[in-house]
Amino acid sequence: MFNYRVTVATGTSKYSGTNNYIYITLVGERGESRRVNLDRPFCNDLERGSVGEYEVGSEVDLGAVLLVKLDKEKFLGLEDDWFCLYVTVTTPGGDTRHFPCYRWLSEEARVHIREGPGKSGLGELYLKKLVVKMDASWDSLQDFERIFWRVKSPIGVFVRENWQDDCFFAYQFLNGCNPCMIQKCWEIPKKFPVTDEMVRDLLPGTTLQQEIKKGNIFLVDYELLEGVPANVIQGKQQFLAAPICLLYQPPSSPLIPIAIQLSQTPGCHSPIFLPSDGSYDWLLAKLWVRSSDFQVHQIINHLCWAHLVGEVFCIATLRQLPAVHPIYKLLTPNTRFTLEINMRGRTELLSESGIITKVVASGGPGMVMFGQRGFRALTYRSLCFPENIEERGVGSLRDYYYRDDGLLIWAAIRKYVESVLGLYYLTDQDVVNDEELQAWLTDVVEEGFQELPDIGFSRVFRSREELWKFLTMAIFTCSAQHSALNNGQYDWCCWVPNSPCTMRQPPPCAKGSVTMEKIMATLPDVSQSSIQMAFTWHLGRPLPDKKLLGFFDEEYFTEKEVIKVIQEFREELNRIDRLIVKRNKGLPIKYEYLRPKQIASSINV
């Protein structure tokens, strides 16, 4: 028996659900599956807004699933229309196909739906040729087009066309999907001995020390990757590096990279790569930085510092606060679906059979060490957005829209928190005396972050100001910060050479040895590239039931004063959204990940 996992989504508008019987049959290259009833007893299947998961068995291996049959039959002779959004089918081998439907099924209807992407005969032959060489290297950079054309984004197209440009490489540290790594360089680290002679051509009329004093030199350091064991994928050793990248902000032109070292230990086997080196040397050095950025983004900044931090607030809220507590009401919209998505992430992404383990260089045995190291680096100041910006010294960077928009959102959340809770906590003593609130904080600190005694959290809330700041941080992390890290994944990672999920050869230890053949042998193979595209699309795609920050259907608060504050918060978010839209009109790449109309209220994907 061959079992296929099927997901069926019902529309969210009124009357989309049905009490009629819906049957599904899968049709593949080699035959048909069994006909399965999707209306299971006592499961509330096919209700409005539901997304149900089912198993469909087949006596034979269907091969590629070509279409889905949906049959509707009346229950007790009663007619009840059904609106189907889509069906996804995952084969026993792990291949997932999407079948968009978006239509009503009425009466005794039968609908045949085909896979979403438009296909031509040539396209199908193209894919069949691709499957034959799934574990092989690409022949050239242009070959990545074979998977890129399937699902495009406007930013993804821009990335494909500009990814080798130095200014664009630097731009991603500001406004890409991992915009929180760059920091001011206060002095050249001893472990990264860049000299004036090396960068003279890039700093005409000035010196490295002069530009450091002016605040124009910046650094990105991936030291968290030092010593992390790299994954073994399908029996083949993968490779990691812990590079350091130096960047320069000229007086009137964009940020540029000026030096890259691919390890934390300088020496003859760890040269400092420069833009003046051979084009292949410099390109491969940048590829190693981008791959390292992918690792830190996925495992540390996105998983550990957003998803898992948000989970701590969610669990403490459910365990310690009654539903009538004002902080329960305040935080619940920002913890919606967080536990569910994190549990799915543990099984589908992080487990031994998960996607991260299958294709990411920092997955597998080294992932736990890497994540623990990332958590030990976490501090309260790094979670508080204005202090994070100050601590990294990036207040003067031009064109840093993540910073600009994030500060606006932080201020709006802060005012909202203070205005709501100021109605309940009139004095600092009210905060101190709230035993349920203090138990919530104890749960967060002692249970959620028990192995991080130096994180910087207070053990007791002693003032309203402490409470306002802490809850602003919690809401910002679960909404804006997660959106900034999550929503752009497909945009910046769909062109695989721009953000390689793994590297299949070790980093170069000498200049002049890099060829295009070596670059292609280092980049992800056909299979890894395809999976990278698929899972970054899956993680970064917009969800149909996304609730935006500040906008929720449930009326947790009933007091008129609080309802007024909520409305003011929404108006402020709309004002910020208009400001960002206006700013974006003049930009070659719109920065929209922190537009309030793009920010989910919670970590739900």
From TrEMBL:
Binding site for Ca(2+) 2: D39
Pathway(s) annotated for this protein in UniProt: Lipid metabolism
Family recorded in the similarity comment: Belongs to the lipoxygenase family.
Cofactor note: Binds 1 Fe cation per subunit.
Molecular-function annotations in GO: iron ion binding; oxidoreductase activity, acting on single donors with incorporation of molecular oxygen, incorporation of two atoms of oxygen
One Gene Ontology CC term in the entry: cytoplasm
Chief place of localization: cytoplasm
Site positions per UniProt: Essential for stabilizing binding to COTL1: W104
Taxonomic lineage from the root: Eukaryota, Metazoa, Chordata, Craniata, Vertebrata
A matching Pfam family: Lipoxygenase
This protein's record includes keyword Iron: yes
Cofactor(s) in the UniProt record: Fe cation
Native source organism of the sequence: Callorhinchus milii
Positions of the PLAT domain: 2-119
InterPro entries: LipOase, LipOase_C, LipOase_C_sf, LipOase_mml, PLAT/LH2_dom, PLAT/LH2_dom_sf, PLAT_LOX_verte
Binding site for Fe cation: H302, H307, H482
Localization of this protein: Cytoplasm
Domain of life: Eukaryota
Domain Lipoxygenase intervals: 118-605
Keyword list, A-Z: Calcium, Cytoplasm, Dioxygenase, Iron, Lipid metabolism, Metal-binding, Oxidoreductase
Binding site for Ca(2+) 1: G17, D80, D81
Entry's Gene Ontology BP terms: lipid oxidation
Protein name: Arachidonate 12-lipoxygenase
